[in-house]
Design goal:
Structural class: alpha+beta
CATH architecture: Alpha-Beta Complex
Number of strands: 3
Largest sheet: 3 strands, antiparallel
CATH topology: Topoisomerase I, Chain A, domain 3
Number of domains: 1
CATH class: Alpha Beta
Distance between the termini: 12 Å
Length: 141
């Protein structure tokens, strides 16, 4: 790959365009990935990682659970969880209507407390799709 300083904006724009389209995908896994990318992009949430039994119950975007996200119509999402280094993340944000709709779908019964919000998404799947997208262009700095 060739490094092209200053060329990042076009890649970022393409990734944003792609995930915006995928917010309405018929494939749930794609819709979940797009919604997670929206949160990572707009809220600077970290992707997160799976943890072992002996690690603190900290959360990233891909490990959000049902109870970490509350919806307040018409389009407010309230996040409340322990993030990296066990720092509380509490934020109320207005989101695009499609993102609100997606979260409502992802929280639908039979899901409840303890269930993953993004049950068809892993950090690896999120990362690999983004890497493939970037590989189609040039790596930017």
């Amino acid at each position: 790959m060739h490094l092209q300083p200053g060329s990042c904006q076009s890649h970022v724009d393409k990734i944003r365009k792609d995930y915006t389209v995928d917010l309405k995908s018929k494939v749930t896994a794609d819709r979940q990935r797009a919604t997670a990318l929206y949160f990572i992009d707009r809220l600077a949430l970290r992707a997160g990682n799976e943890k072992g039994e002996d690690e603190a119950d900290t959360v990233g975007c891909c490990s959000l659970r049902y109870e970490h996200v509350t919806l307040e119509p018409p389009n407010k999402v309230i996040f409340d969880f322990l993030g990296k280094d066990s720092m509380r993340f509490h934020q109320e944000v207005e989101v695009d209507q499609q993102v609100f709709k997606n979260i409502k779908i992802f929280k639908a019964e039979p899901k409840g407390k303890g269930d993953d919000l993004f049950d068809r998404l892993t950090v690896r799947a999120l990362s690999m799709k983004s890497v493939r997208d970037m590989a189609n262009g040039r790596l930017c700095l």
